[in-house]
Amino acid sequence: MSADQAQRIAELIEPLRVEPGSKVRLGKDFDPRYKADGLKKKHGRELLQTGITLLADYQRRLAAQNTYGVLLCLQALDAGGKDGTIRHVMSGVNPQGVQVSGFKVPSSEELDHDYLWRYACRLPSRGGIGIFNRSHYEEVLVVRVHQENLDRQRLPESAKRGDLWERRYREINDWERYLTSNGFKIVKLFLNLSKEEQRTRFLKRIDVPDRNWKFSAADVRERKYWDDYQKAFSEVLSATSTEWAPWYVIPADRKWFARICAAAVLAHTLIDIDPQYPTVSDERRLDLLAVRSELEDEAPKGAERDPYAAEHRSKKGKE
Ligand code: AMP
Ligand code: MG
Q1: Of 269, 247, 261, which Cα lies nearest the Cα of 59?
Q2: Strands 247-251 and 184-192, how do they pair?
Q3: Which atom of ligand 1 is nearest to the CA of 78?
Q4: N or C: at which end does the chain have fewer Cβ atoms within 10 angstroms?
Q5: How far is the CA of 80 from the centre of ligand 1 (A)?
Q6: What's the distance, CA 172 to chain centroid?
Q7: Whose alpha carbon is nearest atom 22 of ligand 1?
Q8: Neighbouring residues of 241: CB distance < 8 A, sequence distance ≥ 6
Q9: Within 10 Å of residue 220's Cβ, how many Cβ atoms?
Q10: How far away, in angstroms, is 103 Cα from ligand 1 center?
Q11: Span 258-316, pLDDT tens digits
């Protein structure tokens, strides 16, 4: 990873970051059709491939250490492209190091706990990447837009008094701060789709038979609450973009650009962690050398003493 590459990633994502403390008005401040100046889809494909390779390398290093973990939270309105983003951005990484969790309407068991419980149960371990397909932010989005969700939450009267949403923002910020200071970096992406692009994608789900399974009449009904969601998202972005876990608003109308941005934000976080392969002590190195000579002595007649080293030498010679 060159310093130049890291710089380019930082520059690409800078306009997408929600400045902590700033007041966001989604419709005015972030354009779902925005893309980096001069970037074409053809070039975009190569760039995404570079990003995917970079992520694969960093994920291997992350998995080799056991201090840091990464949590990627994906939020979007229906048809915003969460599934496709996960599929493409993570296509190069070792599945063993990644755990994807989706969150739907809470079950009865989940409602028997505090509202952050089910998310806490799915957090990544050190060395891992956890992906939340929808996240704890649903608790201040869909639950806010449809208050009947809140009624089902079995809260004590005292928890409903005062400004419940302000309190939840604070609790979420505190929870994320706690996780961050304990080694878990949080990456928060909002895939920002326009209403017209959502209409087009819903129609595609009807028009293309292979996509019919993705179509949900409930999603179309939910579209009626578009303005309420825009307002709820604007508040969430304003109140919960923090120094320790900032939000990035990803322009989502062009899927190819959204995927590049998502990969870039994740890469930026991993570059920042800079996970290293553990190195061995001099003493351990001496042990390894002793074992090597034992294994070399076991070479059958006519075989190389160390076939790996021999092959490596001959490859080097050809270069
Ligand atoms: P999907 O991701 O499209 O399969 O749908 C999942 C549904 O679950 C969406 O309509 C979400 O709004 C809903 N959902 C997710 N989290 C919650 C929550 N905490 N309370 C109520 N509904 C939720
Ligand atoms: Mg849905």
Answers
A1: 269
A2: parallel
A3: 3
A4: C
A5: 14
A6: 17
A7: 105
A8: 17, 18, 19, 20, 21, 22, 24, 188, 247
A9: 15
A10: 6
A11: 999 999 999 999 999 999 999 999 999 999 999 999 999 999 999 999 999 999 988 87
d(CA 111, CA 118): 9
Q: 223 near 200, Cβ under 8 Å?
A: no
Residue 154 CA to ligand 1 centre (angstroms): 18
Residue corresponding to tokens 């009904």: 221
- What tens digit of pLDDT does each residue of 227-262 get? 999 999 999 999 999 999 999 999 999 999 999 999
CA distance 222 to 217: 9
Q: Whose CA is nearest to atom 1 of ligand 1?
A: 104
What is the separation of C-alpha 241 from the centre of its chain, rounded to a whole number of angstroms? 15
Residues in contact with ligand 1 (CB, 6 Å cut-off)? 78, 103-106, 134, 138-139, 142-143, 149
CA-only gyration radius of the chain, Å: 24
Query: For ligand 1, what atom is nearest to the CA of residue 142?
Result: 12
**Measured in angstroms, how far is the CA atom of residue 165 from the centroid of ligand 1?**
18
- For residues 264 and 105, give the distance between their C-alpha atoms in angstroms, rounded to a whole number: 30
- Token look-up 């949900």 returns 216
pTM: 0.94
Is residue 17 classed as helix, strand or coil in its secondary structure? strand
- Residue of the nearest CA to atom 2 in ligand 1? 104
Kindly provide the residue ranges of all beta strands, DSSP E only, lying in 42-135, ordered along the sequence: 69-76, 98-102, 129-133
User: Using N-to-C axis directions, what is the helix angle for 82-89 and 255-273, rounded to 10°?
Assistant: 50
Contacts of 119 (CB under 8 A, 6+ apart): 103, 132, 135, 136
* Best mutation site among 86, 105, 136, 148 for ligand 1 pocket (most ligand atoms within 8 Å of CB): 105
